[in-house]
């Protein structure tokens, strides 16, 4: 990955980290540890905290005791239990190792940032240079291509969740590259000869390839960037995008068309080396929907409130974009670079790399609502101010969406395709739906400004109501932290001792005989398919048993269940941490 594997392995696990000598009982923040390691490794930190502080979560405190042995784990609240600390120190699961030691260095950071910039700039060139070429021939080709892009992302999200084997990564990338080449040739030919059917087909083919490239960029970012690098990388990409957008307004449409066709493949080439192994691992692995039966905390369901939030917010923002277009107002304003640059500077200068997605979402909502109100109150005289606020709100929330989806995918890279593709897909679908509502209102109400204002007010009222009531207890940071790495299998334990521990836990928490059978299989790392075949029951029955077991034990992650069996004092520890856990029989 551009940085020596030998040096990487030197810091691969906690016991190998040699702590600098400190006075007895001295405690300091985790940022100090990372700074120390950065100096030792010549400015390239190779590890991160398991609980990233970059998303509104306080950094855990670490400290060394005066009597601590060399190479021993530091004390403090870096994880929920000493068992989990030992598990991470020994590297029992591949995913936990990846989560703690992302592979990205400075070179990977720059490549991902450049790739995201290419994806964003391609979308800008599409709106500024390419779509105006469609209007004289077939204006609805633009809408069909946008829907095709969103449908591609949604389809990839479904495949990544239900049947990852269907990804066929090696074949898919060849199809994408060839489709881009053929689609580009067909698009140019259709514009030259005025063929509407060929134009629509070519636009859809290019849109499909662009969606696939976007997923590859998201997967590479999730697997190679640390939690402290994600927000700065995305913020800098948006700054670079807005700086380059200036040229998109002045370059000839032919150059803009070439850039639109080439940039997605440039983005794919920049990150393909890092994205390929992850995509292949996902293709060969178990489907997330099956793993979620035995490890429900490891995956976000497709109906998670995170995706509902992304969809509804993008509906309102898509309406605001078409709102400006209906009145002849530009869709964006270069002044939007000011709040974007402020966000970038903020995340860069913060020592802990903090990024509050919830706060930035609230600011984006205020910008959009303020833009609507200013235009409604002052009319055309204030349309530039209204457009700036609307564009700022759209852009700030787009930053939040990119950061949150990559961060959630980074927590468990097995589900990175499912999370990122589904999230971007529902966002694109929401934007398209919002824009369609805006067009329909403009056509239905015509020049009746009072009806248009009333319809706009009703939509904004629903939007603000959802933001205040529907998201009252929702937090992007908590959603990200709620995703835990999936566990491959438990460490081998002598059979008799293993069964005794399982029975002890079952007796302590009141598990039924059938729940004990499921519990023992879960402790061995068995998946949903194995349990279903061994017990000859349905998938829903297995899911119900797992849900009851987790509720009785008072746990939320598969690793906590394994820790109960691996440690002699596991059951007692969980009992002390969860005194209110249900122990009765169903």
From TrEMBL:
CDD domains in the record: LuxR_C_like
Name of the protein this chain belongs to: HTH luxR-type domain-containing protein
Pfam families: GerE
SUPFAM superfamilies per UniProt: C-terminal effector domain of the bipartite response regulators
Record-level Gene Ontology MF annotations: DNA binding
Region (Disordered) location: 62-96
HTH luxR-type domain boundaries: 504-569
Presence of keyword Transcription regulation: yes
PANTHER family in the record: DNA-BINDING TRANSCRIPTIONAL ACTIVATOR DEVR_DOSR (PTHR44688)
Species of the source: Slackia equolifaciens
GO annotation, biological process: regulation of DNA-templated transcription
Keywords, alphabetical: DNA-binding, Membrane, Transcription, Transcription regulation, Transmembrane, Transmembrane helix
Membrane-crossing residue ranges in chain numbering: 109-134, 140-159, 171-191, 197-221, 233-251, 257-276, 297-317, 329-347, 359-378, 384-409, 421-441, 453-471
């Amino acid at each position: 990955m551009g940085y020596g594997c030998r040096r990487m392995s030197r810091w691969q696990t906690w016991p190998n980290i040699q702590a600098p000598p400190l006075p007895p009982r001295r405690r300091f923040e985790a940022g100090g540890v990372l700074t120390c390691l950065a100096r030792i490794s010549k400015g390239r930190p190779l590890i991160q905290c398991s609980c990233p502080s970059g998303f509104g979560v306080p950094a855990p405190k670490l400290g060394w005791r005066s009597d601590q042995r060399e190479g021993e784990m530091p004390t403090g609240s870096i994880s929920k239990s000493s068992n989990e600390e030992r598990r991470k120190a020994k590297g029992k699961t591949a995913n936990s190792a990846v989560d703690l030691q992302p592979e990205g260095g400075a070179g990977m950071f720059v490549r991902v940032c450049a790739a995201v910039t290419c994806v964003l700039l391609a979308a800008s060139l599409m709106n500024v240079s390419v779509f105006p070429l469609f209007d004289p021939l077939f204006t609805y080709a633009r809408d069909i291509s946008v829907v095709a892009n969103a449908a591609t992302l949604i389809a990839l999200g479904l495949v990544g969740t239900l049947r990852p084997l269907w990804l066929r990564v090696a074949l898919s990338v060849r199809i994408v590259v060839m489709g881009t080449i053929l689609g580009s040739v067909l698009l140019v030919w259709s514009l030259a000869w005025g063929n509407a059917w060929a134009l629509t087909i070519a636009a859809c083919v290019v849109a499909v390839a662009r969606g696939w490239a976007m997923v590859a960029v998201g997967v590479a970012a999730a697997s190679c960037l640390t939690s402290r690098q994600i927000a700065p990388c995305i913020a800098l990409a948006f700054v670079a995008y807005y700086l380059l957008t200036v040229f998109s307004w002045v370059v000839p449409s032919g150059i803009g068309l070439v850039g639109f066709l080439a940039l997605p493949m440039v983005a794919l080439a920049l990150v393909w080396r890092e994205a390929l192994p992850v995509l292949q691992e996902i293709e060969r692995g178990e489907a997330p929907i099956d793993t979620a039966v035995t490890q429900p905390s490891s995956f976000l369901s497709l109906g998670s409130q995170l995706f509902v939030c992304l969809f509804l917010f993008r509906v309102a923002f898509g309406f605001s974009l078409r709102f400006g277009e209906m009145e002849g107002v530009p869709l964006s304003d270069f002044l939007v670079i000011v709040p974007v640059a402020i966000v970038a500077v903020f995340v860069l200068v913060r020592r802990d790399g903090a990024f509050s997605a919830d706060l930035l979402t609230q600011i984006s909502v205020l910008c959009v609502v303020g833009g609507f109100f200013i235009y409604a109150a002052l009319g055309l005289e204030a349309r530039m101010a209204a457009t700036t606020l609307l564009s700022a709100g759209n852009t700030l929330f787009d930053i939040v969406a990119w950061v949150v989806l990559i961060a959630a995918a980074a927590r468990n890279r097995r589900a990175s395709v499912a999370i990122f593709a589904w999230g971007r897909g529902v966002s694109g679908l929401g934007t398209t739906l919002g824009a369609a509502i805006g067009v329909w209102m403009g056509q239905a109400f015509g020049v009746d400004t009072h009806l248009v204002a009333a319809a706009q007010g009703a939509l904004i009222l629903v939007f603000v109501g959802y933001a205040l009531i529907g998201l009252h207890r929702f937090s992007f940071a908590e959603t990200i932290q709620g995703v835990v790495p999936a566990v491959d299998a438990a460490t081998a334990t002598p059979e008799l001792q293993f069964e005794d521990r399982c029975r002890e836990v079952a007796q302590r928490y009141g598990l039924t005989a059938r729940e004990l059978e499921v519990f023992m299989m879960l402790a061995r790392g068995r998946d949903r398919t194995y349990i279903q075949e061994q017990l000859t029951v349905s998938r829903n029955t297995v899911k119900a048993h797992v849900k009851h077991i987790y509720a009785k034990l008072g746990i939320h992650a598969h690793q906590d269940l394994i820790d109960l069996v691996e440690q002699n004092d596991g059951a007692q520890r969980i009992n002390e941490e969860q005194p209110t856990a249900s122990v009765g029989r169903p």
